[in-house]
Amino acid sequence: MQQRIAVYDDLLRALQVMGTIDDKTPKNRVLYAMWLLETKQLCLGFDLQQECSFVNITEVLLQVFENDIEIYWMAKGFHVLSEEIREEMGMLLDLTETILEKEDNGIYIHLKQCDILPGLPLAKWYSSFFSGVLSELALIRIWDKICGRSNKIVIFVFIEIMRTLRRRVLRCMDLKSLLECIDSIKDEQETADMIVNKAIELWQQNKGHKEYNIPKQLN
């Protein structure tokens, strides 16, 4: 723990001396800058305000935990998991269509006919573990599964969001209206808990199916 504190303090002090951050810099952006510096990705004039999964993940952790040093280390760990999901993204997106078609053909057909499916920010949602999409307390249960390398659970979260909002989804005729529909529930704890419960249950029902397994890449 002492080593983590020393590293954290050194990074924070360096950013302050460099003028990269100040007292007005949001905490999630401070932690993002620290990670960029530690990984040698911080360059002169870097835009800390750009959107990225590290910032989104950190924002959730800040809402749930209090120790900034532990939050920084957790964020780094989750970023590694986020990169693993990015590497599997092509297969995850293919599986999303396959499983959605099986679990709710009506929603699948509607999204295809309205040409909504290709425009959905699934890569962003999956790689940030639905940060900013569902309430933080509900998300932690999904993140626990991801820590166990059950990356495929993100598919079932998306499917259960669609099924929970089914009536409203079927009234959405374009991408904008669907995104607004999904955005309307981000602060609804009860809805998020229901989605997560159903997602975990559906994931458990399907995790043994070989046709839904993500093949491991050969070294």
UniProtKB/TrEMBL annotation:
Function: Non-catalytic component of the TSC-TBC complex, a multiprotein complex that acts as a negative regulator of the canonical mTORC1 complex, an evolutionarily conserved central nutrient sensor that stimulates anabolic reactions and macromolecule biosynthesis to promote cellular biomass generation and growth. The TSC-TBC complex acts as a GTPase-activating protein (GAP) for the small GTPase RHEB, a direct activator of the protein kinase activity of mTORC1.
Residue ranges constituting the Rab-GAP TBC domain according to the UniProt record: 1-150
Pfam families: RabGAP-TBC (PF00566)
PANTHER family registered for this protein in UniProt: TBC1 DOMAIN FAMILY MEMBER 7 (PTHR13530)
Keyword tags: Cytoplasm, Cytoplasmic vesicle, GTPase activation, Lysosome, Membrane
Protein name: TBC1 domain family member 7
Compartment(s) of residence: Cytoplasm, Cytosol; Cytoplasmic vesicle; Lysosome membrane
Protein source organism: Culex pipiens
Keyword Transmembrane: no
GO cellular component: cytoplasmic vesicle; cytosol; lysosomal membrane
GO function terms (MF aspect): GTPase activator activity
Gene3D superfamilies to which the protein is assigned, alphabetical: Ypt/Rab-GAP domain of gyp1p, domain 2, Ypt/Rab-GAP domain of gyp1p, domain 3
GO biological process: negative regulation of TOR signaling
